[in-house]
Amino acid sequence: MTILSLPLQNHLFSSTALPKPRRFPLCATKVRMSLQESAPSIAVVGVTGAVGQEFLSVLSDRDFPYRSIKMLASKRSAGRRFTFEEKEYVVEELTPESFDGVDIALFSAGGSISREFGPIAVDRGTIVVDNSSAFRMDEKVPLVIPEVNPEAMEGIKLGMGKGALIANPNCSTIICLMAATPLHRRAKVLRMVVSTYQAASGAGAAAMEELEQQTREVLEGRPPTCKIFKEQYAFNLFSHNASILSNGYNEEEMKMVKETRKIWNDKDVKVTATCIRVPVMRAHAESVNLQFEKPLDEDTARDILKNAPGVVVIDDRAANHFPTPLEVSNRDDVAVGRIRRDLSQDGNQGLDIFVCGDQIRKGAALNAVQIAEMLL
């Protein structure tokens, strides 16, 4: 059993215990592909963050093949040591030279770092899978959810002799489209209305720590510490902390609008969103209303979703049991429930669904590693 010393990425909401260190199980009898000389060399940029740590978890869980792996972070984090898959690593400071000999780089260090170092890595022959918003709307950069639009990566493979950039969509967009796309393929979505209920994990490890700290403080009758968010987070909810734009929408909401159109390759689809922060430690929830071009009844929709890759249906009306953030935390699949006809529309032209997905897992790290798998 290998223990990674950096906490939080596996933590569910708890008012009692601190997060436990992430553990990476190994099968001693299994010959890992990672030992093969033909496997790619990897770099994880932003390895000390919540998503960076989840990159490692997913790489291990999915037996991703690599011959070497670099752990990269800021100068402040350089020198930290930890064990991953029974080998000790030292976190290295991110520099242009970091990408020499690196085949695939998984980035999750923020937009400014991606804008600076992403092109540098590409120039040195590295294929970059970037988790920030820096390149998502660049027409030359594919924006990919492997289950949704793998064709966007056509022509990008290891061994092609040059680097490339691939963008990971916003977590809310990924979670939404994992459920909406199978229905869109059958009946074509004309309009989509999304309301999100977003966990602390979407704002990183520091926000998760602050939610736990605030919860303790409020329960003890003390004023809450508000460093990450301006609002009290514990026992409260508020509009997403992204900047408000001139049209009244915030940046998170407009990401869903623009990214959906790019991923679906449909500039005419109408999308509107309201994004809310809720005091949940990990995993986002979304209420999604869909208007279709062709009729689609709820029974057919349920069957479509049951057979959709990466989707699990939790839709037990008799027991009033539907998806929750706790059920999907640390899980790969996106859960869908509350599948019902939109009574405000005539016939079967509309549906309401409720979706939950782990923001750090499928909403970030897993999606990026799946993209990397498509490069092999």
From TrEMBL:
One of its GO terms (biological process) is isoleucine biosynthetic process. InterPro entries: Asp_semialdehyde_DH, Asp_semialdehyde_DH_beta, NAD(P)-bd_dom_sf, Semialdehyde_DH_NAD-bd, Semialdhyde_DH_dimer_dom. Its EC number is 1.2.1.11. Pathway: Amino-acid biosynthesis; L-threonine biosynthesis; L-threonine from L-aspartate: step 2/5; Amino-acid biosynthesis; L-methionine biosynthesis via de novo pathway; L-homoserine from L-aspartate: step 2/3. Signal peptide: none annotated. It catalyses: L-aspartate 4-semialdehyde + phosphate + NADP(+) = 4-phospho-L-aspartate + NADPH + H(+). The active site is at 171 (acyl-thioester intermediate), 284 (proton acceptor). Keywords: Amino-acid biosynthesis, Diaminopimelate biosynthesis, Lysine biosynthesis, Methionine biosynthesis, NADP, Oxidoreductase, Threonine biosynthesis. One of its GO terms (molecular function) is NADP binding. It is an enzyme of class 1 (oxidoreductase). Residues 41-156 form the Semialdehyde dehydrogenase NAD-binding domain. Pfam families: Semialdhyde_dh (PF01118), Semialdhyde_dhC (PF02774). It comes from the Eukaryota. The keyword Nucleus does not apply. The keyword Phosphoprotein does not apply. Belongs to the aspartate-semialdehyde dehydrogenase family. HAMAP family: ASADH. Homodimer. This is aspartate-semialdehyde dehydrogenase. The lineage of its organism: Eukaryota, Viridiplantae, Streptophyta, Embryophyta, Tracheophyta.
